[in-house]
Structure formats: C-alpha cells, structure tokens
Amino acid sequence: MPKVVNYEERKAEIIEKAKALFIKRGYFNTNISDISNSCGFGRTTIYQYFKNKDEIFYYAISETLEEIKGKVETIVTDKDLTIVEKLKKLVFELTNEYEYNHVFIIVAEICVILKMENNKIVNKIKEYFQEIMDSINDLISQGIESKEIKPIDSEGMAETIFSFINSFIIQQDSYSDIDFKKRLSSLNILIDGLRA
C-alpha cells in the first residue's frame, strides 16, 4: 500500500529544503533539480506543489520574513525593556541570526539583479523592509514622547539604523574577518547617543 503523504507537510518539507539551498548556494545557483534531489524525490513531485522555483522562493522568503517579524514584534512589545534597550536588542537580533543574515544577502542579490522591478517577490521584500523601518521609527517616536530619547527626526534615524543593519549584514557576509562585536558596539554607541 502506498504511503499517504500529508500535502501541507510535504509542501513544508520542500520549502525547508529549498530554503537551505537558497541560503547555501544563492537564488540564482539553485534550480528545481537541486531542490528535488535535496528532498529525495523527482522534479514532477515538486511541480505538484509549486509552479516553479520563484513560487518556492516566495514561500521560503515569506516564511522567514514572518519569523523575523515575530521576533521584532516580541522585542517591540517587551514591557521590561526601555526604548533604547529595545533598539539595541532589535539590532542584535537582526544582525546576529545566521539564517536571517543569509536571507538578507539573497534578497539583496535578487533586488540588484531585478533592479527592484515590480514583481511579487520584490514587493514582499519591500513591504517587509518598510515594516522593520516603521517598527524602528515607532520605537524612536515613543522614546521621544516619553522623553527617553532626545527630539530628533525619528524617520531619518530609523532609516539610518536600518541602513546600518543592512550594510553590516552584507559586509559580514562578504568579509569574514569583520569583527561582529566591534561593529555592534559602534551601532550601540549611536543608539546610546539618542538618549535624552
């Protein structure tokens, strides 16, 4: 009797295996055959669950972005942390997590190649980046309102912090000798400088 396979479980397995390949090899160096080999079944099985590699990538990226958003939300709503502590923890989590870093790298690779064209994957990524910047902006605005942070352009500072996070991740991937603690310390000095 043939083994009964749960559709959602099989789909999740494909996404996980594909995500690992995208992280290891990059989006453009991964193909459907690589994914099917990693899963241990034929390409036709993959096509029963997904139309193409782009759709698999979309699901893999969406899943990872949702995980990151969950972490961000947990930090932002943590009542035991001050605003400055939340900002520092947010930066640490976004720059220290191996899987997330590599997702950022793959995203950067795709955005450069696609030149930020209007497509489903890039739109999802842009939306996610905007949500992260909005969270940082909201934290800074709350800090200004509560007098924990001095009056500044919260939106401009949110963009600065987010840009620093992005460049830090890309440099960390490109130059393995980058001193993580030293870079994080520099960003923490910037964040400490926001205190009122």
UniProtKB/TrEMBL annotation:
InterPro entries: Homeodomain-like_sf, HTH-type_Tx_Regulator, HTH_TetR, Tet_transcr_reg_TetR-rel_C_sf. One of its GO terms (molecular function) is DNA binding. Keywords: DNA-binding. It comes from Acidilutibacter cellobiosedens. Residues 8-68 form the HTH tetR-type domain. Gene3D superfamilies: Homeodomain-like, Tetracycline Repressor, domain 2. Residues 31-50 bind DNA. This is TetR/AcrR family transcriptional regulator.
